[in-house]
Amino acid sequence: LQKSDRELARLFVDMFQPVGGDRIAVVFNDVDQSDMAKKKWKDDPTAKSVVLSMDRRKSKLNKKKATGAKKRGFAAKLAQEMEEDGSSAGGLSSGPFRIPENTEVALFVAPGPKELIMVEKICEQVGMGTLVVLLNARTSLVETWGSPEQKDLFTKEFESVFHLGAAPQDVAPNCLLFQAYPGDWVVARKPTVGAPQTIQTFDHRPTPEECQNAFESMEVSQVEKNMEGALEGLATWFS
Prior knowledge:
This protein has 239 residues and is α/β, with parallel strands linked by helices. Helix content is 38%, strand content 20%. It has a four-stranded parallel β-sheet. Strands 7-8-9-10 form a four-stranded antiparallel β-sheet, covered by helices on one side. The two termini are 32 Å apart. The model is unreliable at 58-69 and 81-91 (pLDDT under 50).
């Protein structure tokens, strides 16, 4: 999975090369991922960029817990820690992490819930001066957001430009969910033989209930049913 995330980032770095490699920041979650990217891209002229990681390696002093501290949720504690650890740093910072001030494109690779807190702060600081792109963020799988404002930022203000994945398989088995900006969201079924077939399109990301309704409303041709039945029968010969 990390390799596919890195290769996706590599494609975007190539795409944005016209702005200049020193103005493209590629941000990984940890130093191992960023070091691997630096190694792989070192001699590639089309992969010029500033490769960073969002590691928050803290001194032993910072790791100590304050006595009598009030218990807080994970997101609240992390946000507070970042403010305390890096608020005095110059430039565009988010706690202990910062992106270069001349960054025009910031690519955040597979950020999870805790990394999204940092991304949110960076978005507040850079405003519209920097294009922020989330690659494989999987925000639809986030169950707990740090705040309502954070949820609105990543689910409403960010524009989905490409998605290809499985639809909820418990309600729409063997179905795919696809979207390529500025096109509609598509629920498609992958038959046993042949290319995926569109079942229904939406002007928004369909909910699980809408995927289920689309799946239940589809019509499978008799030819396809016969083909699938024949293949299932053939498979039993070798079982």
